[in-house]
Amino acid sequence: MKQIKIKGATIPALGLGTFQLENELARQITAAAISTGYRHIDTAQVYQNEDGVGSAIKNAGIARDEIFLTTKVFRESLAKKDFLPSVEESLRKLKTDYVDLLLIHWPNRNVAVNEYMDQLMEAQRKGYTKYIGVSNHPTALLDQVLATGADIITNQVEYHPLIDQTKLYTYLREHGISLTAYSPIAQGKVLGNPTLKSIGEQYSKSEVQVSLRWLLQQDGVMAIPRTSKAERLKDNLNIFDFELSAEDMARIDALKKDNQRVVNPPFAPDWD
Fold first, then answer.
1. Can 203 be counted among the known catalytic residues?
2. Which end of the chain is more exposed for a tag (fewer CB within 10 A), N or C?
3. Structural domain boundaries, residue 92
4. Which of the four pLDDT bands, split at 50, 70 and 90, describes residue 1?
5. Is residue 267 included in any domain, yes or no?
6. pLDDT digit string (tens) for 182-198?
């Protein structure tokens, strides 16, 4: 398993995303993922499955420090009065004293960046999290985040072969920040793509496996594919026995011209 080393953290480059998994299914899939070899698990307050994820980790028979666990503070809890209580509730549900990474899930136009970043740094000082980061923050907001002095290790954003994240990726590389790719297979839209299919046939791999491999061959990129089917866990993990050529990578890079964004809620920031 490839590891990303950044600012003292060592993180498995491929993790399990749990978006849209209701609590009991999240417990089952997380337990199956850990049994399959996953050691990087991602959840969030708004997913309402922290309890299930926490139960799976607690009962896995694996030392807590062998699991890299991420959760995210919901945009409705970013104000100073709500922030730390929400994190404390997350820790209770997750049945742990700390998470490895705590993220701001989405920015909130009604809460200043310096207010929520101050609270995020306070959560780190209190030992609620080892590392901090953000999610869904375009470069203009990242400028404000970094101006607070926060030492963030990642920005978790939508990233897959069909979206153009060149500006954001370049910014993150220049600032020594990793990119964590959610919706790394564009919520299934990579399936049937002729380019990904033809490249996959060279290696006896699927469009999904090619997409994940493309992500992880990029410097400083992690991916957290979500699945609701335990049998897919092994497939997603089975991407470390082949390597895409420079020509393959370039062909996949060219797909970004379509710039298909699959996650764009009404409260989203102004994207790059």
1. no
2. N
3. 3-258
4. confident
5. no
6. 999 999 999 999 999 99
